[in-house]
């Protein structure tokens, strides 16, 4: 999806605003990254875009920051399983 497109989901529009970083500002906090990731996964699942969901969840397994937290790691593995079913 290009940044100018709108899929009609208000959560997507909200995240587009929140994700645009300002120059010179600190990185996006890990909690915000996790919330963005889980929101995107839920939207992809609702829209039955399983191929993109599979790619997103498999890519996230490579995130050292996400994998440090055992609860998040467990949830990511479960999301990967859901994407493949």
Structure description:
By secondary structure, this protein is mostly helical. The protein has 5 helices and no strands. The protein has a domain at 37-85. α2 runs antiparallel to α3 (50-60). The longest helix has 17 residues, at 30-46. The radius of gyration is 14 Å and the shape is globular. The chain starts with 9 loop residues before the first helix and ends with a helix.
Features:
mainly alpha; 5 helices; globular
Biggest sheet overview: none
**Helical residue percent?**
55-70%
Beta strand %: under 5%
The end-to-end distance, rounded to whole angstroms, is 24 Å
Mean pLDDT, all residues:
81
Could you give the order of the helices and strands? HHHHH
Shape: globular
Secondary structural class: mainly alpha
Q: What is the tally of beta strands?
A: 0
Rg calc: 14 Å
* Uncertain stretches of 5 or more adjacent residues: none
Oligomer: single chain
Number of helices: 5
